[in-house]
Amino acid sequence: MQIEFKAVKRELQGSSASRRLRREGQLPGIVYGGEAAAQPILLDHNELFHLLKKEAFHASVLSIDIDGAKETVLLRDTQWHAYKPQVMHIDFQRVKAGETIHLKVPLHFINGDECPAVKTGGCIVAHVLTELDVECLPSNLPEFITVDLAALEPGESIHVSQVVLPEGVSTVHHGEGDPVVASAQTPRGSVSAQAEGEEGEEAAE
């Protein structure tokens, strides 16, 4: 289900006006992109603060109601106070149904405790990446991408090319190579103990 929230057009501009609005519990923001002009907006801070805690809010096509007119947007940026739990400004980008979008989507790892690397190999699974850059049409955007670790063996890694993507979704590569998503690693303590055991055996011989 699409996340919806409300906003109103913001008439007052400038830092002093923004400070006053924040004291009143309102959050300045902007909606930009597409053929329409950028629209400064005001939102309820508490509502957006709680929405930002939801993973789906960061990787979903959203519906914003601005004075009764709905627009389809993506969350693009949030500016936070240096030490207070307060959002200072928020940016949204308009999207169209037939235009490709580019977004970071969170990764959900499953079967990590059941893979051979952990169950019989005594390894731990390191999650090297926690999100993936993807591109797709708005209707194909997944809230998350599942990475199945069931077949992971000791010393092996899962790369981006091995991640099963939903239909209509492709990854966006930055640079060369095939980045590691997750890897099976032997804990340092186990490595040290194994080395000491081997040294002891050599000494006994």
Automatic annotation (TrEMBL):
UniProt protein name: Large ribosomal subunit protein bL25
Cross-referenced PANTHER family: RIBOSOMAL PROTEIN L25/GLN-TRNA SYNTHETASE, ANTI-CODON-BINDING DOMAIN-CONTAINING PROTEIN (PTHR33284), RIBOSOMAL PROTEIN L25_GLN-TRNA SYNTHETASE, ANTI-CODON-BINDING DOMAIN-CONTAINING PROTEIN (PTHR33284:SF1)
Superkingdom of origin: Bacteria
Acidic residues bias locations: 196-205
Entry function: This is one of the proteins that binds to the 5S RNA in the ribosome where it forms part of the central protuberance.
Region (Disordered): 174-205
Organism lineage: Bacteria, Pseudomonadati, Pseudomonadota, Betaproteobacteria, Rhodocyclales
Organism name: Parazoarcus communis
Coiled coil spans: none
HAMAP family: Ribosomal_bL25 (MF_01336), Ribosomal_bL25_CTC (MF_01334)
Molecular functions per Gene Ontology: 5S rRNA binding; structural constituent of ribosome
Domain Large ribosomal subunit protein bL25 L25, first and last residues per copy: 6-92
GO cellular component: cytosolic large ribosomal subunit
Keywords from the named record: Ribonucleoprotein, Ribosomal protein, RNA-binding, rRNA-binding
Residue ranges with Polar residues bias: 183-193
UniProt GO BP: translation
Classification via Pfam families: Ribosomal_L25p, Ribosomal_TL5_C
Family to which the UniProt record says this protein belongs: Belongs to the bacterial ribosomal protein bL25 family. CTC subfamily.
InterPro entries cross-referenced by the UniProt entry: Rbsml_bL25/Gln-tRNA_synth_N (IPR020056), Ribosomal_bL25/Gln-tRNA_synth (IPR011035), Ribosomal_bL25_b-dom (IPR020057), Ribosomal_bL25_C (IPR037121), Ribosomal_bL25_long (IPR001021), Ribosomal_bL25_short (IPR020055), Ribosomal_L25_dom (IPR029751), Ribosomal_uL5_bac-type (IPR020930)
NAD is among the record's keywords: no
Subunit structure: Part of the 50S ribosomal subunit; part of the 5S rRNA/L5/L18/L25 subcomplex. Contacts the 5S rRNA. Binds to the 5S rRNA independently of L5 and L18.
Domain Large ribosomal subunit protein bL25 beta: 101-188
